[in-house]
Amino acid sequence: MPDFIYLASQSPRRRQLLEQLGVRHELLLPNVEGDESEDAEAIEVVLPGEAPTAYVERVTGLKLDAAVARRARRGLPDAPILCSDTTVALGRTIYGKPDDALHAARMLAELAGHEHRVLTAVALQVGPKRLSALSISRVTFAAMTTAQIDAYVATGEPLGKAGAYGIQGRAAAYVEHLAGSYSGIMGLPMYETAQLLRAAGFAI
């Protein structure tokens, strides 16, 4: 049975969710100052006409490819590598991470008063084998005034988050209804992740 996994994500929420499952993990991140040429922003560019499901699965796969190469390049011990990506979609429109506060406010204004989908893809590399799963949840935001949106954006919470909000933070005050996986909306669906880890030999 594997002793630990590598987590190829900078998200503190994903770490927290893995800890909740009781899985020992080590971070496998690109060197900020090193000579590793990985362009995360380029990986996250949406292709013309790309559907949200295809997008989130493709990006997760590319991130995992990069992590697998990173482990090999660094000569680290062999262990399963977990990668995940979350995106928000309103219809076929994909809402990634906002560029700045203005962009975040615009995103929130479009999501307010509507139901949107939160798609989180998970992929686990176990030796030559790749296991993957997809979690899709539906979230309905209440209508929000411009003042409410501006106040939320001013907290800084929307920056760095798909769809410009974090459900585990202050945005919860505007979530009227959700159907699906709360942990998936946070960034790592527990049920699907546990299934993949069990398939890799972890006792969860």
From TrEMBL:
<feature type="site" description="Important for substrate specificity">
    <location>
        <position position="168"/>
    </location>
</feature>
<comment type="similarity">
    <text>Belongs to the Maf family. YhdE subfamily.</text>
</comment>
<feature type="site" description="Important for substrate specificity">
    <location>
        <position position="86"/>
    </location>
</feature>
<keyword id="KW-0378">Hydrolase</keyword>
<feature type="site" description="Important for substrate specificity">
    <location>
        <position position="13"/>
    </location>
</feature>
<dbReference type="InterPro" id="IPR029001">
    <property type="entry name" value="ITPase-like_fam"/>
</dbReference>
<dbReference type="Pfam" id="PF02545">
    <property type="entry name" value="Maf"/>
</dbReference>
<dbReference type="InterPro" id="IPR003697">
    <property type="entry name" value="Maf-like"/>
</dbReference>
<comment type="function">
    <text>Nucleoside triphosphate pyrophosphatase that hydrolyzes dTTP and UTP. May have a dual role in cell division arrest and in preventing the incorporation of modified nucleotides into cellular nucleic acids.</text>
</comment>
<keyword id="KW-0546">Nucleotide metabolism</keyword>
<protein>
    <recommendedName>
        <fullName>dTTP/UTP pyrophosphatase</fullName>
        <ecNumber>3.6.1.9</ecNumber>
    </recommendedName>
</protein>
<keyword id="KW-0963">Cytoplasm</keyword>
<dbReference type="GO" id="GO:0016787">
    <property type="term" value="F:hydrolase activity"/>
</dbReference>
<feature type="active site" description="Proton acceptor">
    <location>
        <position position="85"/>
    </location>
</feature>
